[in-house]
Description:
Layout: E1 9-15, H1 22-33, E2 37-45, H2 47-56, E3 61-66, H3 71-84, E4 91-96, H4 103-109, E5 111-115, H5 121-136
Parallel strand pairs: 1-2, 1-3, 3-4, 4-5
Amino acid sequence: MAEKGHKIRVLIGKVGFDPHDRGILILSQGLKDAGMEVIFLGKFLTAEEVVMAAIDENVDVIALSDHCGVMRLIASDVTDLLKKNGATDICVVAGGIIPDEDKPLLEELGVTGNYGMGTPMAEIVNHIIEQVSDVRGT
């Protein structure tokens, strides 16, 4: 997983008032098991808190989770803040309950993955590796 001495760093956080954390806890452990460094911020965060922590921690990826069906709003806020802060090299992936009609908008915003419950961990890990490789040009 380490490329040229650099592990993929993933920040995981839940923006908003969604209390469901089982998925992000499983994701966190799965990414650690795959050799990634995980920074777990927890729940009930603002988009600003997530983006500022991602920049401060020099992460490669922000992983967002939502089980209330409002990922389009969360992702819009996060991607807007990344642009405003010149941090467009941070990949954003999403999971949870994401309505199919929202997935094209999320892709337009640059949010990839957009996985539902039950997605195999290997699929998520491989996707993150590909996204980071694309950004790094490796």
